[in-house]
UniProtKB/TrEMBL annotation:
Top-rank taxon, per record: Eukaryota
SMART domains: BRICHOS, SF_P
GO biological process: respiratory gaseous exchange by respiratory system
Name this polypeptide is given: BRICHOS domain-containing protein
Source species: Gopherus agassizii (Agassiz's desert tortoise)
């Protein structure tokens, strides 16, 4: 075997050190990205069996850094995505195959729960109002300003317009602010009026 000079030994040793250093940097970066993502976004898939035997699939994503919770609700005939943006104080709703997104300000006293949303999602277009309920008037004349909605809602509704939901009180079948058209209720305590 030929004898390796000390200069060649140093070059080989330096090359091995550079390769090992590069390996540790890449490994550290990958572990850091994994841990950051793991602590930032948590995803949970759940299948719930209803009282009448119907199945409901829910996927929840919680982003602690942006203080956002997104829920994808899937039932037999209806699917929707609901976003609770706690930093912006907004709730966004997109029903699959709808040509509109809706957004409303969070009211600490009347925030519709995810259970209310998922339970009444199939009845989104049912025309009925009973009792004293908080209702929302979705007026297409007032589109929401996308710059004030945050990244999550803008991504959710990127290809369709977003409209504000303005609260008003419903008294039985009458409204305290005269709406145009009949109210359409969903979420158990949330009604539309076009």
């Amino acid at each position: 075997m030929p004898k390796v000079s000390t200069t060649q030994q140093r070059i080989i040793l330096a090359s091995i050190m550079v390769i090992l250093l590069g390996f540790f940097i890449v490994a550290g970066t990958l572990v850091g990205v994994y841990l950051t993502q793991k602590h930032t976004e948590k995803v949970l898939d759940v299948v719930i069996q209803g009282n009448k035997g119907e199945e409901e699939e829910q996927t929840a994503m919680v982003n602690e850094r942006e203080n956002v919770a997104a829920f994808h609700i899937k039932r037999k005939k209806s699917t929707a995505t609901v976003v609770y943006n706690y930093n912006q104080g907004l709730i966004g709703l997109r029903i699959t195959n709808s040509k509109k997104c809706f957004v409303m300000k969070m009211d600490k006293l009347n925030i519709p729960s995810l259970d209310e949303i998922s339970r009444d999602l199939p009845h989104f277009y049912t025309k009925q109002v009973s009792g004293d309920k908080m209702s929302y008037n979705f007026r297409e004349a007032e589109p929401a300003d996308r710059t004030a909605l945050g990244t999550t809602l803008n991504i959710l509704c990127s290809d369709i317009p977003i409209y504000w939901a303005l609260p008003r009180k419903i008294q039985g079948n009458r409204s305290s602010s005269a709406p145009l058209g009949s109210p359409w209720c969903f979420f158990g305590s949330l009604c539309l009026c076009f």
